[in-house]
Amino acid sequence: MAAITASMVAELRAKTDAPMMECKKALTEAEGNMDKAEEILRVKLGNKASKAASRVTAEGVIAAAVNGDVGALVEVNCETDFVSKNDTFLSFVQSVAQLVADHNPADVAALSALPLAMEDFGPTVEDVRKGLIGKIGENMSIRRFKRYAGGGQLAHYLHGVRIGVVVEYTGDGAAAKDVAMHVAAMKPVALAQADVPADLIEKERSVATAKAAESGKPAEIAAKMIEGSVQKYLKEVSLFNQPFVKNDKQTVEQMLKAAGTSVASFTMFIVGEGIEKKQDDFAAEVAAQVAAAKGQ
Q1: For the residues 228-234, what does the mean pLDDT come to?
Q2: What is the DSSP letter of 276?
Q3: Is 142 within 8 Å of 108 (Cβ atoms)?
């Protein structure tokens, strides 16, 4: 059997973009024949991965890795809810979260270049990702992450694998954990009213203005209606002003004050948030096929 050298593996990897371990396996199977090894990869992995790469990944998993004042929250997407329950996929996502916490990558590209080996794939996160696409048969992508380090204590809460929250705080850990759970349930967009993004306020103001115009009220009254609606919205979406989910007789701010705790920031990830999912219309697809057949 021909010896499989590192340069041969590198050459095949450059040609196919397949994970390094898969290249080595293909070369071994092909007894060192580069063309045959490339063909093996195209059949076994390359076609599957290239086809998967164009498919929407709107499902997935949120994972957290928190240790003291250092932690990370990540979202890794896949195509179906079925794969989001796959043990190998879950292990990959957790590994990615730990790498973010340990290495502080600047972005997804830097994270993808970090060392990782699992399921015979590697030596980088990106190699493992591509290898798992080939093995599982579904596209998957690292979408986003948030890392905390040294700014304060951290509490986190995962609602299954679909919602994840990290809260940066000082004070009582139980109160902070309650806040993380509250965030997952009530989904505030900012800590305080002053932190609500301007574009969201303008959107709410536009809706309120349209409603006021429909009411037919005098301009002076309409203006008060608009401002009242905006202020109501700001209270509803700012964490500190929301009624505490475990006791709606007090706000989150009041609960924290009573517990001697302050929250500096929070991050919430919801799987697939903002990703447009592909909607399959089976009836329309069949009708189109019938029409096409008639046109032949």
Answers
A1: 92
A2: P
A3: yes
- Cβ neighbours for 194, distance < 8 A, ≥ 6 positions apart: none
Q: Which CATH number fits domain 59-186+262-270: 3.30.230.10, 2.40.10.120, 3.20.20.370, 3.30.479.20?
A: 3.30.479.20
Quick one: 6-52 is in which CATH superfamily? Ubiquitin-associated (UBA) domain (1.10.8.10)
Give percent of the chain above pLDDT 90: 56
d(CA 168, CA 176): 8
Higher pLDDT, 147 or 82: 147
Report how far residue 252's alpha carbon sits from residue 248's, in angstroms, rounded to the nearest whole number. 9
Report the predicted TM-score, pTM, of the whole model to 2 decimal places. Answer: 0.73
Find where tokens 């593996």 sit: 9
**What's the sign of the alpha-carbon dihedral 28, 34, 39, 45?**
positive
